[in-house]
């Protein structure tokens, strides 16, 4: 293994917009899911968080955005700093107002609201959202503009994912926590979505913490990556280095150095299952 | 000929009182949709509205509009107070605990009214027009007709708020997916508070109208029983269901009362309830499964 867990070896000259320090998360006072997890997201970067099913990726994002409260989960140790300030005690909507936006796994569009109303619903954290903010969303997702009067429940999976990201965009946050944007999408659509994610990051300067099962995609757009297993980080480093690391290639990209893959079938199988689940 | 006339008159009266079921049902549905609380105190909140109006109009001898305005304000404050002190601390508790709590709330409201105004029936000052009204040959009580007109206006305001007001978007978003609403910056506790305020104001207005037609007494809360049937038949989470089922049950009760006798009113509605539950367990227009209690 390369870097030790819990000790992000990052260029300290650059500021972290998000700094998660050694957190522990427990559900229902009994089930411990995160065990001393640390990570940092550098201002303006896309940072990837990878790991297998049930490793605790979603839980990590919920701990950051405050949504654990809704599920009887709690951060029982460690600190989470957003923009240098502790998030402890803040309600989710207050964190959004400060610029931290969580795009939940599984899209969660408001099905009986129109596309436009879904975007309006994401502007409550801001004093004055104007037509220009909506136009910005529609410029990234022209498809949403065509469907703006349609009920979100009738959108295709890809369109719903666009809407989920569009809602984050209209809120103009400083950081977006993005949970599995490729979930249930075709490879082509996944690529399209990721292209737009990279554009938003580059053009709007929005930092992103990206949780993904599609490691290849995540490596393609991120500059730094963390890999977690059962509640803690096991490897982390700049993406270009991790992507060429033989262990990582074998276990997370599904290609061993012998070329043939040992885990490839598992990966395929997993993806199929995910798609089926969504 | 006269048979037809009777049928029409009875039907009009039924639909008229159905309008009051409809708006009270709407109040119930709003709270259920936004907060998932089954509010069994809705009938008692309606009763309290009627008594507050009585206090302002008969007690303090305020003119009608001031008394009505005062009632609306008090009902809104009551809604905010109930949500803040009783409902919000119960967040995350089992639905049955909250359900029981609203039953307790109903008893508290009834007890309070009895302490202040006594247990005897009272009459509200006459403020609805009282001369007979004829639609063609059919006689309609002008009180019922006016109450129906006011209820219609309440429904229109309600629907317009839901559709066009920004806060209406927050309400519907929260009703549709609470976690997602939270995650995008909607102040969910404030939405809860708002839904209780709007619902209690609506129930309070319904109370003023019910009281103007039939007088007021601390037992008025049983009106809530019919409203419960309305929302179960229509679907706990359906605005359209509350409106349609409200009118229909008003009609059904009037017909059963006129043709079978007053004692059949409740029987008819509960037979309808059982039939609907057997055919469609979550109501005619309901979408989600009813919380198991
Ligand atoms: N509300 C909850 N109550 C109890 N346990 C939970 C809860 N939410 C998640 N867990 C547990 O925490 C662990 C991590 O879950 P989490 O959803 O964070 O995984 P994940 O890495 O996002 O997985 P996936 O790739 O499947 O989305 C799992 O074992 C899960 O069962
Ligand atoms: Mg997950």
Put simply, the count of helices of chain A is 11
Oligomer: heterodimer
Overall 3D geometry of chain A?
globular
Mean pLDDT of chain B: 90
CATH topology of the largest domain in chain A, what is it called? Answer: Rossmann fold
Helix content of chain A: 25-40%
Number of helices of chain B: 11
Sequence of secondary-structure elements of chain B:
HHHHEEHHHHHHH
Q: Tell me the strand percentage band of chain A.
A: 25-35%
Give the strand line-up of the largest sheet of chain B. 1-2
Q: Largest chain-chain contact?
A: A-B, 31 and 20 residues
Domains counted in the coordinates of chain B: how many?
1
Proportion in helices of chain B: over 70%
| Helix-strand pattern of chain A | EEEHEEHEHHHHEHEHEEHHH
What is the SS-derived class of chain B?
mainly alpha
Name of the CATH first level of the largest domain in chain A: Alpha Beta
- What's the total count of β strands of chain A? 10
Q: What distance lies between the first and last C-alpha atoms of chain A, to the nearest angstrom? A: 33 Å
Show unreliable segments of chain B: none
- Which fold does the CATH topology of chain B refer to? ABC transporter involved in vitamin B12 uptake, BtuC
* CATH C-level label of chain B: Mainly Alpha
